[in-house]
Write a structure and sequence with these properties.
The protein is mainly alpha-helical. It is built from 23 helices and six strands. The longest helix is centred in the first third of the chain and has 29 residues, at about 120-145.
């Protein structure tokens, strides 16, 4: 595949992209911070276009790659002091993007607008409230995964009641329980809802995620619920086993994402509203470059002839070679300067305007099924595991084939829509990949495949699963001065500690980098 030119200037391109996206988006939503007269449908669009859902430069540059992707060892980096202590300001941005930046704040504005409606208008707009709640629940669960206890039940009161107040920190396990219960209620609602004719034609346009398809939203809600139930499976095994078994035994009542055609993706350019993915500079600005790490590329992918290698990475002059973890900084830099190292694939990732926001995929669902069936029976664990790998391979080949080159660049696509069936079968029968061994060994294989699949598109989910399962066992280098490895959770932002001091005092003892999130009991 074609080598990239690392020193290509793309700053101007990103400015143009931002201007273009902003102009187009004005037709879809209003910012709740800019007006008090907003329709629920436009507020709903604003939730979906949040910078933590769509692929933006800021999210990738300051958070994903700086924190969760690094903690998950998705790229090569040099050993530097405090390398597992990401910028406090950037982590605070991530916190604020949930509360005041577009998710919680916007949903509370939706509630405020809803409460001011008459009964008929409330009935017409109820569908937006339920769909928006799915997004709120998804993002809130991610906040728990990052920080543990969070303000939730009392958060956003100013938007809803116009009354000032400080929100308490809710217990993380209780937030999860509320979300799991709530998603079940939403599934029941969506199973029988008849969208009013006055709203049906208005749902598709503001719904830039699923185009107004209620069935897709229902699959999203149930798939998200399955993810969260499995995540608590070591903390509350009885509930996870009972609920997951119930769902997988009755998928007519609990439909879930089952094929790549049903993936929950926020489409970008050229479909789905003509917005652009903005991650180019974020990847080019990684440490000393956008290079693969030796563990993922050399030890996991190349060693087992992973068919995704060609669409994940561009080979350097040394072939598919990642940054050696045990090399000195100078040695790593010399390899980079000489062009030896492999980089993120040019077309699939680096210069692709068409990277979607990924919320849920069929591959993840199959890996959830595989682990569920392996632990508690009730289904074909091996079949689900293999199907998960196949769906993952197809997904990333589709991402390469559907790429739209940014800034008029032209790069070579892989020569096929998907690898040959024989290639995939050879991979599935590789001793390190084949579904053989003890239950613990099979769980490790499932977790490793899920980690490969999440990659930089869902590194937050990857970091959560690494902490939950302990797999894969990463060869992360230690901080050269402190000996630290990645934290068990993020620290609360300084402004939250100072501005919400009374409530923060109740969780201050937990606010350490070694305090585990409640589901992390390994």
């Amino acid at each position: 595949m074609k080598r990239i030119l690392i020193n290509t200037c793309v700053f101007g391109m990103l400015i143009l992209m931002a201007i273009g996206c902003s102009d187009k988006l004005e037709d879809y939503y209003v910012d709740p911070n800019e007006t008090t007269d907003a329709s629920i449908s436009k507020l709903f669009t604003y939730m979906l276009y949040n910078d933590r859902i769509r692929p933006t430069y800021w999210d990738y540059r300051t958070f994903r790659m700086a924190a969760t992707a690094k903690f998950s060892l998705y790229y090569g980096f040099s050993e530097t002091n405090k390398m597992y202590q990401p910028s406090t300001g950037y982590m605070e941005d991530r916190w604020e993007s949930f509360y005041s930046g577009g998710i919680m704040n916007t949903y509370k504005s939706m509630e405020q607008t809803y409460q001011g409606m008459n009964e008929d208008d409330q009935q017409n707009n109820e569908i937006f409230m339920q769909l928006g709640k799915i997004v709120l629940y998804d993002e809130a669960a991610q906040m728990v995964d990052l920080w543990g206890d969070i303000p939730f039940s009392e958060a956003g009161a100013l938007n809803l009641t116009n009354a000032m107040g400080k929100a308490k920190f809710d217990d993380a396990s209780e937030v999860y329980s509320t979300i799991i219960d709530g998603l079940d209620i939403i599934n029941t609602y969506l199973s029988t809802v008849e969208v009013p004719s006055s709203i049906e034609g208005q749902l598709a346009s503001p719904d830039i995620l699923n185009g107004g398809d209620v069935a897709s939203w229902r699959r999203y809600a149930n798939s998200l619920r399955a993810r969260l139930l499995l995540r608590i499976s070591d903390y509350d095994e009885a509930r996870a086993q009972a609920e997951l078994t119930k769902m997988f035994n009755d998928e007519s009542t609990y439909p879930m994402v089952s094929t790549n055609e049903e993936n929950i993706l926020l489409d970008m350019y050229p479909e789905g509203g003509n917005f652009y993915s903005e991650i180019t500079n974020a990847l080019l600005e990684l440490g000393f470059g956008p290079y693969a790490g030796d563990f993922m590329l050399d030890d996991v992918m190349v060693a087992n002839n992973d068919p995704r290698t060609d669409v994940f990475w561009d080979a350097g002059s040394g072939g598919f070679v990642g940054v050696p973890t045990d090399a000195t900084t100078n040695e790593q830099q010399n390899l980079a300067n000489d062009g030896v190292l492999a980089t993120f694939d040019t077309l699939t990732f680096l210069y692709n305007w068409n990277i979607p926001g990924v919320l849920f995929t069929a591959a993840e669902m199959n890996f959830i099924k595989a682990e569920t069936f392996e632990k508690w029976g009730g289904g074909d664990a091996e079949g689900a595991y293999q199907e998960g790998i196949k769906e993952s391979i197809d997904f990333y080949y589709w991402l390469n084939q559907s790429a739209v080159e940014s800034n008029s660049f032209t790069f070579s696509r892989v020569s096929m829509d998907s690898p040959a069936e024989s290639t995939i079968n050879d991979y599935l029968s590789d001793p390190d990949i084949a579904y053989t061994g003890s239950t613990a060994e099979k769980i490790e294989k499932i977790a490793t495949q899920k980690w490969i699949h999440y990659f930089i598109l869902q590194p937050g989910q990857a970091w959560s699963e690494i902490r939950r399962t302990g797999y894969p066992q990463l060869n992360l280098p230690e901080d050269p001065t402190t000996g630290e490895l990645p934290p068990a959770r993020l620290l609360y932002p300084p402004t939250e500690r100072s501005n919400n001091g009374t409530n923060y005092a109740a969780v201050a003892a937990k606010d350490t980098r070694d305090t585990k999130v409640f589901w992390d009991v390994q």
